[in-house]
Amino acid sequence: MASPDISIDIRPEFNSFDHLRSTGYISTDRPWLKLYGIRVPPVSPFNSLSSTPDLALIHQCLPDELLIEIFGRMSPYTLGRAACVCRKWKYTTRNPTLWRNACLKTWQRNGIEANFRMVQSLYDSSWRKMWVQRPRIRIDGLYVSRNTYIHTGITEWQFKKTVNVVCYYRYLRFFPTGKFLYKDFPTESQRCCQVHASPSIKRR
Questions:
Q1: What structural domains does the chain harbor?
Q2: 185-202 confidence digits (pLDDT tens)
Q3: Is the Cα torsion angle 170, 174, 178, 183 positive or negative in sign?
């Protein structure tokens, strides 16, 4: 049976341990708690008549006209990434001029008048909606088709017939001029896409 002196000596150690544990976990500094209750003022949309100045330095250096000119030189997929940067860029990328140019360039074989009639009748006069929903052939990557077939092996001194499963990949690449290339290759798609994305291939 333990003596009372031993229990008296252990009790302060437990108390100090509890104090360290509460200090280490409960009093931990959490900087994100300082952000609670802070309201970020909304940014006025593009070409808005609001007199509230934009506090962002990049927006002070780039006027709206120059920002539209920069976005006009981007591809539609890059515009989607730019819309995720901030609220003002999101509003700016919704400009119908940007998506109209992309649609007319993609479906230029149909003609300008046919595209205008289609966007008004099928896509609620929204060029961005037309770009998102209308089927098109992508020219910024590869189309991969995985094909397999069964090949009977040679039976020599065996009671069982051997069967081999052959797998190959067919790669298709489309270009804006209407030209396309295809090649059958045994290399997996992951390796082929890495070679396609290399700088040496892009320079050719």
A1: 57-133 (1.20.1280), 143-202 (no CATH)
A2: 887 777 766 655 544 444
A3: negative
